[in-house]
Amino acid sequence: MPIVSAPAENMGGDFIFGLGIKEIDANQRHCGVIYRPDAEVVRFLHLAFHFDLRDEALNGTYWWAPSGLDPENQLVLAALANVIAEGHPSIPYGFDMDGLIFDKATGALLPAPPGRGLTCATFVLAMLQTYGFEPILSRSWEVRHEDEQWQDQILAYMQERGASPEHLDAIRSAESNKRFRPEEVVGTAAQQVDEWAIEFERAQLLAAEVLRDMAG
User: Fold this and answer.
1) d(CA 193, CA 176)
2) Of all residues in the chain, what percent are helix, strand and coil, respectively (each to 5)?
3) Which residue of 30, 32, 111, 197 has the fewest C-beta atoms within 10 A of its own C-beta?
4) Torsions phi, psi for 11 (to 5 deg)
């Protein structure tokens, strides 16, 4: 059974909260959360880039999967997504998400030291961690050479787009950060919640399944 379903497939009226992913280029995917603020509307909430949070009508370009949460907790996370979307918090882009979660009442990102921030993938993780859910066992994660190269490219792009020198310097001065890739987050969060806290090696297998599904 596939982990993610094609954009054209009907997700059904019982879909409450889940994941969306699409390919940007051959080596880059983008992900976010799909949620229903009410029975008639399906939205896609995602961190597009540095201080660029977007809440949009779900379009036909994203592969999708329900989260592994039970319906009650899916409702809780859908409500959080709606609060975040309405609050439109300022979210810096960065590779160290340690301690970053959202205020449940306002949707604001709780204060963090300079250099901390989220990617599209860790935005999803931070939402889940706001309620104590951890699909990924982060302490098992490995720092990969190709991910360090990716981070260097992103930092150069952030500098071009006007990110503050203080934020960039704080990121550069940090130790090498783990990268949680979109396909890893989607693959793990789509598993049943009693399987969560998934270790690195299994997450790689699930990520490979997601990419195979997307390749058709």
Assistant:
1) 29
2) 40, 20, 40
3) 111
4) -80, -10
Residue 180, judged by CB atoms within 10 A of its CB (0-12, 13-18, 19+), counts as buried
Dump pLDDT digits (tens) for 119-128: 999 999 999 9
Q: How far apart are CA 3 and CA 1, in angstroms?
A: 7
Other C-beta atoms closer than 10 Å to the C-beta of 143 total 12
Task: Say what the pTM is.
Answer: 0.96
Q: Please name the residues in contact with 48: beta carbons below 8 A apart, sequence gap of 6 or more.
A: 54, 120
Report pLDDT digits (tens) over 191-210.
999 999 999 999 999 999 99
Give the whole-angstrom CA distance, residue 68 versus residue 103: 23
The structure tokens listed for 154 are: 């992103």
Q: What does 102-117 look like in DSSP terms, one character per residue?
A: B-TTT-PBPP--TTB-
Q: Nearest 5°: phi and psi at 46?
A: -155, 155
Nearest to 41 by CA among 25, 24, 55: 55
